[in-house]
Write a structure and sequence with these properties.
The chain has helices spanning 10-20, 28-42, 68-71, 80-92, 111-119, 140-143, 169-182, 196-202, 207-223, 228-237, 340-346, 360-363, and strands at residues 3-5, 45-48, 58-66, 98-101, 123-124, 126-127, 151-154, 160-163, 186-190, 194-195, 204-205, 244-260, 263-272, 278-284, 286-292, 295-299, 303-308, 325-331. The chain is α+β, with helices and mostly antiparallel strands. The strands form four sheets. It has a seven-stranded antiparallel sheet with strand order 16-15-14-13-12-18-17. Strands 3, 4, 7, 8, 9 and 10 form a six-stranded mixed sheet that branches. The mean pLDDT is 93.
Length: 368
């Protein structure tokens, strides 16, 4: 069912998107402020259920691209993604009927809402990652036959570039990454233009609604003084993300992080409260793998989510700090992200990891 998004939804939506973003996707707080300003100036946003989308409607997803660490110092003005959308519309010679997230995590759950508010377009309640990934070819859209290019890239001073690499989505990412670096490490993009029928076939459905539901569930559990992690499991158990596992509880003991080639890369370690077990996280914008005492407990594309222990607020990779008390959970991805075709694009090998993918529900028991 389609629904109208207002300012009152934003805090819960940002929180839930940060959970589904697995530590990446950009700062959700910054994204929330951008949407809040756009709604105040232009009015609420229609969130369009994919089932209600016309099969011939042109949908142009929009997003922010770059290292999340850069956004701390380079706050968007709020117009860049709409500039990219307009540039791609001019190139295609066709106006968009709707926009859509490319991923449901962090700031990139919010950027299409900014575009929707400022353009008057609806935003489709779906995305192409079901979480957040660091590279543009890592989309269910591309896995199931939609080409990412032509794509438009926009900078903060109104610069635009159009990239067309045909069906080669990986080369599109490489070229766009280079432009993004030269724009200061962050840019805004419009890509994977497609018709409504392709959205229904290739997208992970209703992830904006799910993010709002997750964020609200965590807040309400805290207000009732219930266990928010247990409530998270109940909410996701009725969704495409059926399995939630607690992987680790402890305190962050070290963080090594660097901005490199347009990504925030690094690792973090944590010690359990009884000092008997150690966690290691490896990330590239998003968390890729969680190891406990050297054993894999959750692995990309399943979600590794770091939450503050008391309030269950999600912590992004750029916000990890020594001494934080954390609960790390693993969440299973939807089945269309676990197919052989999908794993070939965004499974462990795509990130240079030596581990074979195994579902989180087989690596960790529900009682862990």
């Amino acid at each position: 069912m389609s629904w109208l998004l207002t300012e009152e939804h934003l805090e819960d939506l940002a929180r839930g998107a940060a959970v589904l973003g697995t530590g990446g996707g950009g700062d959700p707080y910054v994204g929330r402020l951008l949407v809040q300003q756009a709604i105040r100036e232009c009015g609420p946003v229609t969130v369009l259920d994919p089932a209600e989308l016309d099969d011939e409607a042109l949908v142009i997803p929009t997003a922010q691209m770059g290292a999340p660490t850069v956004v701390f110092e380079k706050i968007p003005s709020g117009d860049e993604a709409l500039t990219a959308l307009r540039a791609l519309e001019r190139h295609l010679g066709t106006p968009a009927a709707a926009t859509m997230p490319i991923e449901c995590g962090g700031i990139n759950s919010m950027i299409p809402l900014v575009v929707a508010a400022r353009s008057g377009l609806p935003v489709v309640d779906a995305d192409g990652m079901g979480r957040a990934f660091p590279e543009l070819q890592m989309e269910t859209f591309g896995v199931y036959g939609v080409t990412g290019s032509p794509m438009a890239v926009a900078g903060e001073r109104g610069e635009t570039a159009v990239i067309d690499t045909g069906a080669d989505n990986k080369r599109m990412e490489w070229l766009a990454r280079g432009i993004t670096i030269r724009l200061g490490g962050v840019a805004h993009i419009a890509e994977y233009s497609m018709r409504g029928a392709e959205v229904k076939r290739t997208a992970v459905p209703r992830t904006l609604t799910l993010a709002h539901t997750v964020g609200r569930a965590l807040r309400e559990a805290r207000e009732r003084q219930d266990d928010p992690i247990a409530h998270l499991g109940e909410v996701l158990g009725d969704s495409l993300y059926q399995h939630v596992r607690v992987l680790f509880r402890g305190k962050i003991s070290d963080v090594e992080r660097r901005t490199e080639a347009g990504f925030a890369r690094g690792r973090a370690t944590a010690m359990s409260f009884d000092r008997r077990h150690e966690l290691e996280l490896v990330f590239q914008n998003e968390h890729l793998v969680a190891l406990v005492d050297g054993e894999v407990r959750c692995l990309v594309p399943d979600l590794v989510c770091v939450l503050e222990s008391e309030q269950a607020e999600p912590i992004t990779t750029e916000s990890l700090r020594y001494g934080q008390r954390v609960t790390v959970v693993g969440i299973s991805t939807p089945e269309l992200m676990r197919t052989p075709q999908a794993l070939a694009v965004f499974g462990p090998a795509a990130f240079g990891l030596r581990h074979d993918f195994r579902p989180v529900e087989t690596l960790t028991t529900a009682e862990s």
